[in-house]
Design brief:
heterotrimer, A alpha+beta, B mainly alpha, C alpha+beta, B: mainly alpha, Arc Repressor Mutant, subunit A, 3 helices, 2 strands, elongated, C: alpha+beta, four-stranded mixed beta sheet, 12 strands
């Protein structure tokens, strides 16, 4: 074990200490001891000591393994190679202890015994192993029913919220959709053939617990179309303080229905006379605030599906983007063929026109939203924009004139050029 | 004229070999290059020809700020 | 012995085999939930079944020993099933609330905190940092540990005006996509790479070095005999990718690198639309092992928010109401050139065009 006076200072305090945790492994594994040694060195030097590899992998795949080498191999030979293995997680990050123990056995045998539960995309991240361990580790993983996740310019492992498995607000089966789409795109998940990464996250409702709108090119967010279901007696119970605001998520004992709910409704579509809560559902914008505050009194409607949004990514290159609404409402029934087709069509358009490292949201900026919508056959809809353009630089295609000549609106399929 | 499967595989391998050290090719670059010479080639054939080269270990995927298809080599970062 | 056939493209196991029996029996039938106390959720089904979830903070960077310990607890209390959340917490499932005190005692013995529900500060979503990443300006797990130690009181209580989501990315590549967080901690490099021509020709592959640059700022050196590259410094975003491909291009600077704080982002649609986090503090020194300046800055912002925000207001909604000029004033943060956006076309949308400002 290397001396780690700086890291040792992270062993105190009430939050669980990763240093204490990793030291247990370091005591029995030289490579993990060297990992702490390198980390201590970074704490001293204030600089990283890892180099990026770009070639190692398992046969047949271009995904799932990230090459990693230390720049101090002589001092820390245990981490000379320290590659990452991404293991595709199950929908909703649910596990049986039997399955997790099997995974831990594999990682104890073939790697550093250090991992992330979970990485930013959602995968289980096995942190650190040697090149020669990759194939045996992969063989053991598949023999127990696990596969590698995505990396590089590939379809990335999709992730989803817990959805109908334990949430009353799941507007579609996020868990099954996540599984189905992962299976559908296995080829593209393991064989990076896109311009850059292509992510999918599925949230069951507009609370968006997996941050789909910010963290995935393809963001599928559940929504309902009909009326919020109201239990007036439960509303009374919230007003009277028998039921706690937000199901008990706050420090407050009692809701003021008028102030906390009605006046904070962004569309002002609610009213309360002290006895009855009324909602003008046609004007509701599905923000979830009232439902969040009174989960026993208000429930989303029963005509359910999801909105499809596209384009979000982290800041490199054009600055961070959030996903834009493309399809305001889609049915979401197993086997989700409409979603599969939509995502394939988008990938085809993007692959055809995208440059290396250009995310799909950036390509839309470069070629224009119309180019995408025409290519995937989606009609313009006011839900797609926050506000219409303010400039006069809108242009007309021959297809627009053709549509006009036929007496059609510009937004019909007839007007589109493929 | 579309190439028969085996010839297509060799055609792509030669393309990757010729690009080695000069330009890093993406799967789409290969597809576009094949289609330029053989416009009637089925895109799926190209996809699976690349898969055959990768599965046989004659080519590998690499990642250098984007994923490419290359001839296997020892990477710089692995050297001291 | 013949080798078994190579299996590929099987995808992850189906989640169905990992669902707690009560989750399976009530799949799609959940009616409502309550949070009985911080960290303890009760979900009630239309069938009348109840499932209690106990949320526990975890470090994200863990060992197999840690996971096995969690498995032991799940076997003892949770019928052999548990899950992780999108924010790196664990959730154990109880069908019988009378088991809660014993579970709490076992968790306390391990020092594993219960909380992270409702109007709390829940676990920090974060990236790898110095433990594994090739481009970080800062560590990840260490800063997270230091910040969570300091904000620990907020994890196990529902004391804030709304939930507060903190996230950390160890460089501006933002693998953690922290850009829509109430409080985002972001590592920043501040210097473009300096090319060491005499070293580069021996150490680096020129095509991969050029390919590594996301902005295309690296070109072959015009003097071909040098076998090196040049950098267009104006295009450099300090992302660090080139340095990791090519150690002859050092841009990481132990003293110049540091931490930026961005605030006011969210992803939920509740009341107001999802929003980006905005720059609050452009640079704080990178000071391991406990980053006291970062910890203090976050505490200050959090406490000012807790004092100033109305009921239900997220950090960004509070700032929007009082105005950014007031935010900088109450948090004692100096306003600098760095705060004024000048990156491409997104910038003009941030300049003020109204007389709606305060002094």
């Amino acid at each position: 074990m290397h001396k780690t006076p700086l890291l040792d200072q992270l062993e105190s305090g009430p939050w669980p200490s990763f240093v204490t945790d990793l030291k247990r492994v370091a005591a029995r594994k030289p490579q993990t001891a060297d990992l702490l040694g390198v980390l201590e060195r970074s704490y001293k030097d204030k600089i990283t000591h890892w180099k990026h590899g770009g070639i190692v992998g398992v046969l047949g795949y271009g995904s799932g393994i990230i090459g990693r080498y230390t720049d101090l191999p002589d001092e820390f030979p245990g981490v000379e190679h320290f590659h990452t293995i991404r293991v595709n997680h199950p929908s909703g990050w649910v596990y049986s202890t039997k399955a997790l123990r099997e995974l831990m056995d594999i990682w104890d045998e073939h790697g550093s015994s250090v991992l992330n539960m979970h990485g930013s995309t959602g995968d289980i991240i096995f942190l650190g192993t040697r090149t020669e361990e990759l194939e045996p580790c992969f063989a053991k993983l598949t023999s127990k029913g696990w596969d590698l996740g995505g990396s590089g310019s590939a379809f990335r492992s999709p992730s989803c919220c817990i959805g109908p498995a334990r949430c009353e607000w799941a507007m579609y089966d996020t868990m099954e959709a996540c599984y189905e789409l992962t299976q559908e795109f296995q080829f593209d998940l393991h064989r990076p053939s896109y311009p850059y990464k292509y992510k999918l996250k599925l949230s069951g409702c507009p609370n968006d617990c997996v941050a789909a709108v910010a963290r995935a090119d393809c963001s599928v967010i559940g929504v309902w179309k009909d009326d919020i279901r109201i239990d007036q007696s439960a509303v009374q119970a919230y007003a009277g303080g028998e039921l706690k605001p937000r199901g008990g998520a706050t420090k407050w004992d009692k809701l003021d229905i008028q102030k906390d709910v009605v006046e904070l409704c962004p569309t002002q579509c609610m009213s309360w006379d002290g006895k009855t809560l009324k909602i003008n559902n046609r004007e509701c914008n599905h923000c979830m605030h009232c439902i969040n505050l009174m989960p026993q009194a208000l429930r989303p409607g029963t005509e359910r599906g999801a909105a499809f949004l596209l384009g979000s990514h982290a800041p490199i290159l054009e600055g961070a983007q959030m996903s834009w609404v493309i399809v305001p409402f889609m049915e979401m029934e197993k086997p989700f063929d409409n979603l599969k087709e939509l995502m394939s069509n988008i990938a085809e358009w993007w692959s055809e026109h995208g440059k290396n490292r250009e995310r799909v949201g950036e390509l839309i900026l470069r070629l224009g939203m119309r180019s995408l919508l025409e290519a995937i056959g989606v009609e313009p809809a006011p839900q797609q924009v926050r506000i219409p353009r303010a400039n006069p630089f809108f242009f007309w295609h021959q297809s627009d004139f053709d549509a006009e000549a036929k007496g059609r609106r510009y937004d019909t399929r007839q007007g589109f050029i493929r | 004229m579309a190439l028969p499967k085996e010839e297509l595989v060799e055609y792509i391998y030669k393309m990757v070999e010729a690009a080695q050290g000069k330009k890093q090719l993406k799967a789409k670059d290969i597809e576009k290059a094949v289609l330029k010479e053989h416009p009637d080639q089925n895109k799926n054939d190209i996809k699976f020809a690349i898969k055959e080269l990768i599965d046989g270990g004659r080519c590998v995927y690499t990642y250098f700020g984007g994923s490419f298809i290359e001839i296997p080599r020892v990477e710089g970062a692995a050297k001291h | 012995m013949t080798e078994p056939e190579r299996k590929t493209d099987i995808g992850p196991p189906h989640y169905g085999q990992f669902l707690h029996p009560v989750m399976k029996a009530n799949y799609g039938k959940w009616k409502y939930h309550e949070i009985l106390e911080p960290g303890v959720l009760m979900h009630v089904s239309e069938t009348g079944d109840k499932l209690y979830s106990v949320r526990v903070g975890s470090g994200r960077l863990v060992s197999t020993d840690f996971v096995r310990e969690a498995c032991d607890l799940a076997d003892k209390y949770s019928d052999g099933y548990f899950r992780f959340t999108s924010r790196h917490n664990m959730e154990f499932f109880l069908t019988d609330l009378s088991k809660l005190p014993a579970l709490k005692a076992d968790l306390a013995a391990k020092g594993w905190p219960i909380g992270g529900t409702g109007h709390s500060v829940t676990s920090i979503v974060h990236t790898q940092g110095w433990v594994h990443c090739h481009t970080p300006a800062i560590d990840a797990s260490g800063i997270v540990k230091a910040v969570m130690d300091d904000l620990f009181e907020y994890f196990g209580k529902h004391d804030l005006p709304a939930q507060v989501r903190i996230a950390l990315a160890c460089c501006l590549n933002m693998c953690g996509a922290v850009h829509c967080s109430d409080i985002a901690i972001c590592g920043v490099h501040r210097t473009p790479p300096k090319v060491m021509h005499d070293k580069l020709r021996h150490l680096c592959e020129i095509p991969t070095t050029i390919a590594s640059c996301p902005t295309g700022a690296i070109r072959p050196h015009p003097d071909k005999s040098l076998k090196s590259v040049i950098v267009n410094e104006e295009r450099c975003m300090y992302c660090g990718n080139c340095y990791t491909m090519c150690p002859a291009m050092p841009c990481f600077d132990a003293e110049k690198g540091g931490v930026a704080i961005l605030v006011g982002g969210k992803v939920s649609n509740s009341k107001t639309p999802p929003a980006f986090s905005r720059l609050a503090i452009p640079w704080i020194p990178n000071n391991p092992p406990r980053w006291p300046e970062v910890v203090a800055a976050i505490r200050k912002i959090l406490t000012k928010y807790a004092e100033g925000a109305n009921k239900w207001e997220r950090v960004g909604e509070w700032i929007e109401r009082i105005g950014w000029e007031r935010f900088f004033e109450v948090c004692d943060i100096p306003f600098t050139f760095q705060h004024i956006d000048d990156y491409k076309f997104q910038a003009y949308d941030t300049y003020r065009t109204s007389m709606h400002f305060k002094f």
